[in-house]
TrEMBL record:
Protein name: 4-diphosphocytidyl-2-C-methyl-D-erythritol kinase
One matching Pfam family: GHMP_kinases_C
Its EC number(s): 2.7.1.148
Entry annotation: catalytic residues: K11, D145
Sorted UniProt keywords: ATP-binding, Isoprene biosynthesis, Kinase, Nucleotide-binding, Transferase
Amino acid sequence: MSAITVRVPAKVNLQLAVGPLREDGYHDLVNVFHAVSLFDEVTAAEPADGDATAAPLTVRVEGDHTGGVPVSDDNLAVRAAMALAGRAGRTYRADLLIRKSIPVAGGMAGGSADAAAALVACNELWGLGLPVEDLMEIAADIGSDVPFALLGGTAVGTGRGERLAPLETAGVFHWVFALADGGLSTPRVYGECDRLREEAGEAAPRPVVSEALLDALRRGDAKALGQALANDLQPAALALRPSLADTLAAGREHGALGALVSGSGPTCAFLAESAEHAHELAGLITDVDGCRAVVTAHGPVPGATIAGAGAG
């Protein structure tokens, strides 16, 4: 039985500027994505049995973060494989195994990462040979964060985040991620952002990328990058999960160069001076209330990459 394994990274949003709500229900965004070294793996394998009546696509989930991950057609990896087969114009079969290390509903695009990995794995398993441009087009139809999981590195996303332009980045940045108990619904956080703005009588601004952030990335200046980190969804995430304010404060008190809620949360991200500082900072914030685990990572790293192919 042949199988293809693809490794795919989590992301942190260095800047998430949220503009007005559009007629299609999405918001205009400027979203600076940064891929970090927390990885899921998705293996696509030919089914072992010859039962023609079995579902063409199945999914299993293993690993540290499996709670709430669907094992049905609602799983983004399954949806990605179905979309790929649809593009090819025929029915293909595959058993998908997702090994999770990226937090679920944590604002780090774990589900989108799995979808990107499934596209790459099934494209290889089925011998379709579609170019990355075609995979990116399919990815954008599945979800706003899926194209970046294919691309990796550091990039700015516009539109609803799916139109990507790679960014020049010097050096390596070191991160600490505080994983919260439970998750936050992305639609709920966006809805709360809209509600808070309406309550304050604020019109949604036109989203613009931060020149200070771009300059810090080009120079590899961690201190300047820490000062430029920004997330328009953070007030909404804090309103829905007030305990995150204590986590952010703890990171700042212990010397983080920058601290913010990643994406729609509830994961909190802290920028460190070095790998050594990241490990030290992780130890200092481990016992903060509401924080179930702390992990370190670095970035940028590549997007979805074939990690192994085999027969068994």
